[in-house]
Amino acid sequence: MDKDKFEYRQWVAFINRETELNDLRNFIDKEPSEILFIHGPKSSGKTTLLYKFFEQMEKEQKLDVKFLNLRKTFTNVYEDFLKAFFSVETSGEKKETLTSNINIGIFKIDAAIEKKILEKRADPFKVMEAELMDLTQKRIKPVLIIDELQALDKIYLDNDKERQLITALFNFFVAMTKESHLAHIIIASSDGYFIDRVYTDSRLKKTSTFYKVDYLAKKDVMEWLLNLEKYSKIKDYTLTEADAEKIWETVGGSMWEIQDILSLLFEQPLEKVIYLYRERLRSLIVDYVVKPERKEIEKLLRLFLDRDELSKEDVSSDDEILLRDMVRQNILYFDPTKATYYPQGKSYHLGIRSYFKR
Ligand SMILES: Nc1ncnc2c1ncn2[C@@H]1O[C@H](COP(=O)(O)OP(=O)(O)O)[C@@H](O)[C@H]1O
Ligand SMILES: [Mg+2]
To answer: Which of 169, 207, 335, 351 would you label with 247, given CA atoms 20 to 30 Å apart?
Structure first.
């Protein structure tokens, strides 16, 4: 092999998302007037979509994208929040690019302001607002993206248990969008319950748009699997239409799992890979179910044998406690906009089915 050549036998694909990219563009092209809440099951591609979108947009428009990915940041107390939101800029520092600017200190401040914030002589929200105003005056559109915002859920302002940070942040977001039209605010979360709380808060509901990013549709999956060289730069093998169908039947449009299957196919035949995959999902359900509440959990999971989703209205409050845990453990997803529970993906649905088959 040529050592100088930087190559992989499989690359990370990015399939379609035309509709989503267009919808995001429409959102960004309007003066800010509402918060955008992006929801959807874990690994449905929310973060990737946002990265792609802003990579494209930053080339076309004067944007200042402040992208905070809280999945990658440790946030526990108020000081962690300050660290995530603010950083001191030393003079002569070169402007960071979007990807290098993801995690810490999305608002650049000078040392004097930092000191004031830490000594509680300056209100961090006022400091943020000032920067957003400054950018707008320079005719740069500020965009604030917070990925996995629920990570801030247990934090209190100045560590005062009476004042939830998240409430203050939401007030700030409403002020920045609906009231003063200063910045685009985009929130993403995989936590259906968190979004549900927002969705059922009448004031936030009125000032927000909810947008679902879901796994890929079948036609996209087929397009990908029948053109592996084009999308994943895989040259070692190709798949037939029947192979692609089998993969779709196993994991549906879950990109992460498709990618995983594709990498297993370098070593093993499809039949074997699919067999092992199904076994793995079955045992995942077994591991989850084996606990004192097994009977009650089985009763609920059995409902998914002949249906795709379960409406919140149809379950008792006892059942809801169990369902909540299944959502927390990513067995089920809760869609706040429809108030329904359903298996996290096709593979989980299969896992549930094969659990009852034996
Ligand atoms: N449009 C896409 N086409 C192919 N793979 C994708 C696409 N979007 C995301 N992925 C892959 O799916 C996985 C999960 O994506 P991610 O954006 O982290 O999901 P989320 O933020 O919703 O949890 C990643 O491995 C990513 O590379
Ligand atoms: Mg994400």
So the answer is: 335
Tell me: do 72 and 130 sit in the same domain: yes
Ligand 2 centroid to 254 CA: how many Å? 14
Determine, yes or no, domain membership for 53: yes
3-state class (DSSP) for residue 16: coil
Residue 217 Cβ < 6 Å to ligand 1: no
Q: Of the ligands numbered here, which is closest to the C-alpha atom of 102?
A: 2
Q: Mind listing the pLDDT tens digit for each residue in 152-183? A: 988 998 888 888 999 999 999 999 999 999 99
Among 212, 238, 255, identify where a domain stops.
Answer: 212
Range of lowest pLDDT (87-91, 154-158, 277-281): 87-91
Helices (H), the chain: 18-28, 46-60, 78-85, 111-118, 124-137, 165-174, 192-200, 202-206, 218-225, 228-232, 241-251, 255-264, 270-289, 294-302, 317-328, 346-357
Residue 148 Cα to ligand 2 midpoint, Å, equals 7
Residue with the smallest CA separation from ligand 1 atom 25 is 256
Looking only at the bridges linking them, the beta strands covering 63-69 and 141-147 are: parallel
Q: How far is CA 266 from the centre of its chain?
A: 29
Asked if residue 78 belongs to a domain, the reply is yes
26-40, 195-209, 212-226: least confidently modelled range: 195-209
- One domain, residues 85 and 162: yes
The span from the CA of 233 to the CA of 327, in Å, is 35
pLDDT band at residue 97 under the 50/70/90 scheme: very low
**Orientation angle between helical segments 270-289 and 255-264, nearest 10 degrees:** 130
Determine the pLDDT at residue 90.
67
Residues 65 and 197 in one domain: yes
pTM of the full structure: 0.91
CATH number at residue 228: 1.10.10.10
